[in-house]
Write a structure and sequence with these properties.
- The chain has about 325 residues and is mainly α.
- Helix content is about 80%, strand content about 0%.
- α6 crosses α8.
């Protein structure tokens, strides 16, 4: 296991280099002038040229790239063009809010999706199965931002139960929780649909195996057969999906943060993209890329926990 983890962390380096290179080039090809955005439309050409030189935008693109990669290796992504603060610190400051939202969304997705998939499998072709899979298809089909808007309309406007926007009072856990309910359930419902469908198909495959029939023949209770024998083997592909779901939830939190006006890396990146704040966008994407790779490593390690047949050298 130790050698496997070392190998995965070594592979992390070229992955991050590839992600940062792609984002660096993409930002340079997007139309727009950071100097024009900072100084405004009425700035003189002389002032704009001076600022472009200060920002290093007049250098050849390969020189800009080499300088960027050299600094990024040391964790220096430059200063935000808007706030003048270190870009990486700006991202780290809001990243916990995005992790919090994605984490709650995945927890809700697992709590809803796995039981729904299990009971749909053991009650195949019943009314419960049809209703639950119809809801799953609805969750997969509907855009997460649309569900967020509908949640605000129903539970904040017509039924003023939960607040629609904002983070809440940081010093009040109850306020934070109330403001997290709608975005968390919106994200979790969308993610649970994928988990429910995969759990159902995986369970259907497992409960038809000979050892499940043998467990029934030995007189084991339905609960023991389903949750101690069948689910333990059916859960392995679901674990992989949960890991991917966390990464997807982290990416989708960008839309959720915009819809619910919550602080987070999504809000920060949207503002940075529109203002051509290159350092902040590059720092944000690097943090997201690093997070995705770490999530995949954790998921691979969980495989060995749930399936003793899997061993990493």
């Amino acid at each position: 296991m130790r050698n496997y983890l070392i190998e995965r962390f070594i592979l992390l380096i070229p992955t991050l280099i590839g992600v940062m290179t792609f984002v660096f080039l993409l930002l340079r090809f997007i139309p727009g002038d950071p100097a024009m955005f900072i100084l405004g439309d009425y700035a003189t050409e002389e002032t704009l040229a001076k600022l472009r030189e200060q920002l290093g935008l007049t250098k050849p693109i390969y020189i800009q790239y080499l300088i960027f990669m050299k600094n990024a290796i040391h964790g220096d992504f430059g200063r935000s063009l808007i706030t003048k603060q270190p870009a990486l610190l700006e991202v780290i400051r809001v990243f916990p809010y995005s992790i919090q939202l994605a984490g709650i969304g995945v927890i809700i997705a697992v709590v809803l999706g796995i039981p729904l998939g299990v009971f749909s499998a053991i009650r195949q072709n019943t009314g419960f199965d049809y209703v639950s899979m119809t809801l799953a298809i609805f969750g997969i089909s509907m855009p997460v931002f649309w569900m967020g808007i509908m949640a605000i309309l129903i539970f904040s406007y017509y039924l003023p139960i939960f607040p629609a926007t904002g983070l809440g009072n940081i010093g009040n856990p109850f306020s934070l929780l109330r403001h997290l309910v709608l975005p968390g359930f919106t994200l979790g419902f969308s993610c649970s649909a994928y988990i429910a469908r995969l759990t159902r198909s995986s369970m259907l495959e497992v409960i038809r195996q000979d050892y499940i029939r043998t467990a029934h023949a030995k007189g084991l209770s339905e609960f023991n057969v389903i949750f101690k024998h069948a689910l333990k083997n059916a859960i392995i592909p679901v674990i992989a999906l949960v890991g991917l779901t966390f990464g997807w939830a982290l990416g989708s939190s960008i839309l959720i943060e915009v819809v619910f006006s919550r602080p987070g890396i999504g809000q920060l990146l949207i503002k940075a993209i529109f203002s051509r704040d290159y350092p902040t966008v590059q720092a944000g994407v690097a943090v997201l890329g690093f997070s995705f790779v770490i999530i995949n490593i954790v998921v691979d390690c969980l495989f060995a926990v749930f399936d003793p047949r899997i061993r990493y050298a």
